[in-house]
Structure prediction request, 357 residues.
Amino acid sequence: MKINLAVLPGDGIGPEIVEEALRVTEAVCTKFGHDLSYEHALVGAIAIDTVGSPYPDSTHELCMNSDAVLFGAIGSPKYDNNPSAKVRPEQGLLAMRKKLGLYANMRPVTTFPALIHKSPLRADLVKGSDFVCIRELTGGIYFGRPQGRSEDGNTAYDTCVYTREEIERIVRLAYKTAEQRRKKLTVVDKANVLCTSRLWRQIAQEIEKDYPEVETEYMFVDNAAMKLIQAPNQFDVIVTENMFGDILTDEASVITGSLGMLPSASMGIHTSVFEPIHGSYPQAAGKNIANPLATILSAALMFELAFNLTEEGKLIREAVDASMAAGIVTEDIAGNGKAYKTTEVGKWILDYINKKK
Prediction:
């Protein structure tokens, strides 16, 4: 298979972690006989500093012409809390989502046995948790119009808007994801209060009939937030709107104690973007201490979701599991054991993949 990637390292630790994920991607393509080509482009603070835009037209053109995008992180202290900054790195991420039509953010939340002790929850609650959060990414209150403040500045307003098309496409994606897993879908809304949530529930109930093998439950967002803490292993696939998903996915990402380990995929109309959920961690940039595993696991997601290459993704996950079992990890999860450098972890995984029969 021909695989054409756009590689967007971004800011902070982005270049270091993306480099390791790219090496793993190259090794897997070589092993399975795929024809890989890729090109780097600027995004975020480095793009502002270089060309004045956080998401340059040339970067967008490259993404549009690529089968998938491997993305690092965006953000720089230079632009944080800087009221004089006319443009910020994070605007590049919003522009990318909008222009590429990235309508669904998928975050697998997986328990790693070696990290359960880092969870804020009891081990018996976390053990066995393995679910996917699917967040609608281009609609809702973040993008609704009108929004603003009154002339006197004492009143502010935001508008939450959803269309049938936006809801249908992500709910069907969630059902298809559930079909490939344990066949359970939780639709999260606030249908007892919000009109948009009532539309979400109505459309989900219509679509439910098309997927009789999937068990469907409907849950108010406040209850879902509690259940994620009380019994996270009861979930398989969760689908919800933009703001609810923003909050719930952050909550879900920390319960396994592995924030630096979790990948994500943003599925789009034109192409899809694969990235770790953590930020740019500028304090660690250039020190060769950043954890590359979330980005490497994002590459596994890329093989599976963008190209339907399940064996390739499985091999990457196997290599990551093996590295953790062997204690080949960076300082953020090493505990009392030896801490390895970013490049050392990447090389160990690369060697595992190359030696695998």
User: Anything to note?
Assistant: The longest strand covers residues 2-10. The mean pLDDT is 95. Residues 87 and 253 are 29 Å apart (CA to CA). DSSP finds 13 helices and twelve strands in the chain.
